[in-house]
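Q: Hi! First time doing this. I have a protein sequence and I read that you can turn it into a structure. Is that right? Here it is:
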Amino acid sequence: MSTLIEEIGTFVQSVVTAMGLGLVVTIEETPEASRINLEGEDGGVLIRRGGEGLQALQHLVATAFRRQLGSDSRIVVDCLGYRREKDAELKQMAKFAAERVRNLGAPQEMGPLNPYERRIVHLAVAEDASVSSESIGDAFMKTVIISARH
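A: Yes, that's right. Below is the predicted 3D structure, encoded as structure tokens:
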């Protein structure tokens, strides 16, 4: 897998270079995913407007390497730590929602969220044995319902 990650890193570097952005790719292996990190003064281009450019780059990688990656591989493209911070924020929101479920007894909703964001929420909720989560909706963006486990 590591040579594939290097190939993806090279691909991402060529895309941002073709865009005229002065960014450098580094690869980081974490327990959750392989991370393609972009650093440099032009990073703001990818993370402005809610990270739309970064999300588009993530989608491009997923599409270009779909066959090689299969269904289980996790590749995260990040820029200037933007996704790492957003992921931590989402995890905190999920834990807060789980706490509200425990205290109020009423289910809590989060979303709409994309598949990557939903995975972060489900993993955060799974750390608490007193609550459970499920995704509802039939589109790319779905809502996560967090409820008390009976």
